[in-house]
Fold this sequence. Notes:
By secondary structure, chain A is of the alpha+beta class. Chain A is built from five helices and three strands. Chain A is 48% helix and 17% strand. In chain A, a hairpin with a 2-residue loop joins strand 2 (41-49) and strand 3. The longest helix of chain A is centred in the C-terminal third of the chain and has 21 residues, at 120-140. At the A-B interface, helix 1 and helix 5 of A face helix 13 of B.
Amino acid sequence: MSLEDLYKEVILDHYRSPRNKGRLDPHDVRLERNNPLCGDEIELFLRFDGDDLEAIAFEGKGCSISQASASMMTEKVAGLPAKQARAIAESIKAMMAGEEDGDPDVLGDLVSLKGVVKYPVRIKCALLGWNTLLEGLEEAGRA
Amino acid sequence: MQLSEQPGGRRAAPGPGGFDPEVVRKDFPVFEHPVHEDKRLVYLDSAATAQKPRAVIERVVRFYETENANAHRGIYELGERATKAYEDARETCARFVNAATPRSIVFTRGTTESINLVRYAWGRANVHEGDEILVTEMEHHSNLVPWQMLCGETGATLRHLPIDERGLLRTDLLDGLVTERTRLVCVSHMSNVLGTINPVREVADAAHAVGALVLVDAAQSAPHLGVDVAALDCDFLAFSAHKLCGPTGAGVLYGRESVLEDMPPFHGGGEMIREVWSDRATYNEIPYRFEAGTMNIAQVVGMAAAIDYITALGLDAIRAHERELTAYALDAVASTGAEIYGPPTAEQRGGVVAFNLPEVHPHDLATIVDEDGVCIRAGHHCAQPLMRRLGVPATARASMYLYNTRDDVDALVASLEQAKGWFS
Lengths: 143, 424
């Protein structure tokens, strides 16, 4: 995938029209994280219903890859069992580390984020939301 | 592999003294190698580190091949050659900054270590609770964090000289901020973000009027403007080799001779001593007192070759070229609709243009222009307090040096227009 395709077909839609953007109240977990080098910021809200991640929302600012990836993440994991959300996050991390190709059956459209792997300095931007989600699940004792 | 054609008619005319960046460019082997397979390298990140001319690379190789031994240790001829190359470099640096004596030149790893040397050696002996250190609002972290740390250790107070909306120092506030409590005033000669060239002499005069010392961060100015410690009347001045076309791992701390004489050592170890007993030691004379252990000898020798290289071209000619190119870049980048930070004219700034395109985050921008072989910096440029002052999380930054041409600026602008297109 060319950089232009990555931006035009994957990133910019979510960057311009982020899904689940804003505060989530009430919430069970709220976490703020940033990339010190870039200044990308994310604030993640999680609400659980039993072992399910009932709702998720984020606030943030930063480059398009960090914000679009977070938006795609919320769209994918909302309503899923926490364990499954965690498995998806781990799978995304492995894909970004080049350890896995990314299974379309598990990741769906998120496989397109693999286009970022070619730009090593941007991988941490793409993973900011996912790492924050993993921390949040951990904090909630749900995964 | 084919480099893209240089469009005719847009070549920068040879500047004063016959300075021609197209000719200079040929001295730098890195430009012979395309990036992304076939793209001409458009290197606009010299404020981070400069490219190296063949003369510097070959000098380092020649040292290792024909002169390599430890300096100031070997009794044999090879050792004398190494010592001579190392001490000749000290004289070159002294001439470069117009120091009265090479005894004022301390070799370090670079600007950051130079400043930290002052923090530890001078600071611990001279800064106490109730004292004040004044820094400016535009300092690089390397001329800010060491002073925060020293103030934290000693109970001294850190104060800040503000900048105005154009990115110029508020020297009108010096009177109120420089007091008899002030021990040290730390000022960048040229901002690595705004490009602002600061009136260091005016700051030094204000500091000296109350008995304070002045430390000048010349990391950006030494390569682009040249420095004259007598004219600036500074007590300390720090710069790095790698930003002036020299190797990484070498730099200079200039210290006023009388100030260095009174300073305790920095690191303890070999070479900085005069005599050592099992429980105590006496220390070497300056500048060796501050050069413990084996130094980066080849890099220091390479630094001298870099200074010879840029001074042979002429700092005035380099500055004239950069001023012309910066004026061109300010107009060209502004034409894309970008917001530009710092002084409005090329007269007031060095070859640094920090900017943001509306709607395009600088990190996205840097990735996109890189596809075209254009290297720019994006981020906070090691100046987070300045970013907050400007009210932005990050900026893009194009910085120019002696080998850059209008073609480089045109390539940047074409790439910026493309990025705008993607995000529109």
